[in-house]
């Protein structure tokens, strides 16, 4: 069975020995603190490290058990039922779910190859300005797109003008294999943006080590919510990650990841061009995914059982859309866990059951 569902790092990239050493060192030197109750915002040395990295004050950072949890906290503190929330369409399926759970009126803004459709965005703004807009601007999940500089500036301008909060989710930003980084949305409107990130894609997902930074008043509310929920997030993991960062292991490991994933992305794009010339997809420069809109004549209802019979596990593309039927021909292809040879063999087989 070939698994083309989740974008999970291959287990061989986990720096297990380095993490063992980091954990042991932190426990020996600061074990009494990391094993005790520790209130949010989290382990102070890691909070300080991340604040310095992202050029913010310490009280602009809060740690959590994954960035997804922090996203949920934002929906609980910054919105109430009946408020409007915008999201890219398609977008991360769990973000769709969390926004729906909040009781918000969720509006999907169609995603183009360089970011959301600004005409639709403006039209929806004039109808009902949102409380927040959730966006993955770098190597978006599930599409793989990167929002252009021009669109980032316009989104930031509207955030100020219409006074809404941009949730800039950036788990893939450092996983760039080609090209140059685009300035963050936050750099254009720091008072209207919170940025989410984690070490799930760049270190190990099992650490469940997420963080958020942004305006002090919002971070204060998130911190208070976290304290009232469970006092503080898991501290030994935070100490382990801090020591790993402190010993200078992160950047060399990040380079290894980029060197590993680059040919995998290149191979997927080559095979898509070769075997699915009539499909529509972006050409990502990083991340874990390429989102493909299949030609007319395909549907998830037919493709999923046919793929299972052929030995493939696929993600139902309808889950990435607020209106499921909009994703009936949408296929998210993760490339991170397969070697270039495995990707080529997989695409050769998979395209045999796709209508060209």
What does this structure look like?
The chain has 356 residues and is of the alpha/beta class. It has two domains: 2-12 and 251-353, Aspartate Aminotransferase, domain 1 (Alpha-Beta Complex), CATH 3.90.1150.10; 16-246, Type I PLP-dependent aspartate aminotransferase-like (Major domain) (Aspartate Aminotransferase, domain 2). It is 42% helix and 15% strand. It has eleven helices and twelve strands. It has helices at residues 16-34, 44-53, 67-78, 93-101, 118-127, 149-162, 216-230, 235-246, 250-275, 300-310, 340-350; strands at 2-4, 61-64, 84-89, 105-112, 115-116, 132-135, 165-169, 193-198, 210-213, 289-293, 312-314, 330-334. The two termini are 23 Å apart. The model has no long low-confidence stretch (mean pLDDT 97). One of its GO terms (biological process) is alpha-amino acid metabolic process. It comes from Flexilinea flocculi. Keywords: Aminotransferase, DNA-binding, Pyridoxal phosphate, Transferase. This is DNA-binding transcriptional regulator, MocR family. GO terms for molecular function: DNA binding; pyridoxal phosphate binding; transaminase activity.
């Amino acid at each position: 069975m070939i698994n083309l569902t989740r974008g999970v790092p291959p287990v061989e990239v986990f720096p297990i020995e380095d993490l063992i050493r980091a954990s042991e060192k932190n426990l020996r030197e600061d074990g009494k603190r990391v094993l005790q109750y520790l209130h949010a915002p989290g382990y102070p040395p890691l909070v300080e490290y991340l604040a310095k990295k992202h050029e913010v004050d310490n009280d602009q950072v809060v740690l959590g058990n994954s960035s997804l949890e922090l996203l949920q906290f934002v929906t609980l503190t910054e919105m109430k039922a009946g408020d409007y929330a915008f999201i890219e369409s398609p977008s991360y399926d769990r973000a769709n779910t969390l926004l729906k759970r909040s009781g918000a009126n969720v509006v999907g803004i169609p995603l183009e190859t360089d970011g959301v459709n600004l005409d639709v965005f403006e039209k929806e703004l004039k109808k009902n300005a949102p409380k927040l807009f959730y966006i993955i601007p770098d190597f978006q999940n599930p599409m793989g797109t990167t929002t252009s500089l021009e669109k980032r500036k316009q989104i930031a301008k509207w955030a100020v003008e219409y006074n809404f909060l941009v949730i800039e989710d950036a788990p893939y930003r450092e996983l760039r294999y080609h090209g140059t980084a685009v300035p963050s949305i936050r750099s254009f409107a720091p008072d209207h943006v919170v940025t989410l990130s984690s070490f799930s894609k760049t270190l190990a997902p099992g650490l469940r080590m997420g963080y958020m930074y942004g305006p002090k008043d919002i971070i204060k509310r998130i911190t208070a919510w976290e304290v009232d929920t469970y006092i503080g997030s898991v501290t030994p993991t935070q100490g382990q990650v801090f020591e790993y960062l402190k010993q200078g292991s992160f950047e060399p490991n990040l380079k290894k990841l980029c060197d590993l994933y680059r040919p995998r992305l290149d191979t997927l794009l080559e095979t898509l061009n070769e075997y699915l010339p009539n499909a529509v997809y972006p050409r990502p420069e990083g991340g874990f995914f390429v989102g493909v809109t299949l030609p007319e004549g395909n549907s998830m209802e037919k493709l999923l059982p046919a793929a299972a019979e052929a030995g493939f596990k696929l993600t139902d593309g309808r889950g990435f859309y607020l209106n499921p039927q909009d994703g009936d021909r949408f296929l998210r292809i993760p490339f991170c866990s397969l070697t270039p040879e495995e990707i080529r063999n997989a695409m050769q087989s998979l395209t045999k059951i796709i209508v060209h």
